[in-house]
Amino acid sequence: MTATQQAEKRTDATGAPRHLLAIDDLGPEGIGEVMRLTDSFVEVSRRPIPKVPALRGKTVASLFFEDSTRTRLSFETAARRLSADVMTFSAGSSSLSKGESLRDTVLTVEAMGVDAMVVRHSAAGVPTQVAGWVRGASVVNAGDGWHEHPTQALLDCYTIGRRKGGLEGLRIAIVGDVRHSRVARSCVTAFAGLGAHVTLVSPPTLLPASLAGWPVEVSHDFDSVLPKLDVVYLLRLQKERMTEALLPSLREYTATYGLTRRRAELLAPGAIVMHPGPVNRGVEVAAEVVDMDVSAVTEQVANGVAVRMAVLYLLLGSGVDLASA
Ligand code: CP
User: Rounded CA gap, 31 and 163, in Å?
Assistant: First the structure.
């Protein structure tokens, strides 16, 4: 496929993005547009009947080849709140077990009449492959291997924006297993693109082999970084993606890089604690810190629905006037 054909597959006739595969597909301006749309959908979500007809007649399929609670449920809720039909695919009970290929699975789902596919897979690059296979559907990356999780970064930008009034000039630390984290990759790009100063706080074994091109600083001293931060963004140890022993012990990791109660008390007034979930309480963060006022974890989840409504509307709703929806 030529570069022109590839560009045509990624945009519609008006030049609007057809897919969301990585946060760079939006850029800072596109992120701003999603944030503005999200404000409208937060308002919709607060109505007694939190539903608008913006995507009536459209069908959204969720194709999750890897487990999920937040992302899957919030995309399906978002689609229903926009009045789209939802098609749910479960890898475990599908004909993949009979040897059907990923490509044939995707084309089979598309043949039933699907306007968007929300795709999660444990292998990096699968949503991009799917976007190359489909004929007309939009593809949204719901997390692929270590690569990207763009809608997580969008809901995090929105959550920070609501608490802090924007990201410009904020000091944000992303703490923990950066190496295996698709969330970290999307968040670094989004946070830095919106003007935040990002520091990675991690043991050397849990950093990527190369940070060339990453707009970040690096620290191995959590205690010295903590008091200067506006946002502490904690990551789970992603054991499902670790193929070797990278830590001496969990106890040592928690002692050095965990957000303990003592460390939470070092945070500046107004600083917030975030985590994409699922949280391993007592490992990367003390159980009680997740429930303290500094924690924005529940807001992140709540905002995820409205952000995903905005993404689906942006990809599928062109031509629909949101004000009359
Ligand atoms: N943050 C996130 O992607 O959570 P799930 O794996 O539960 O979707």
Answer: 17
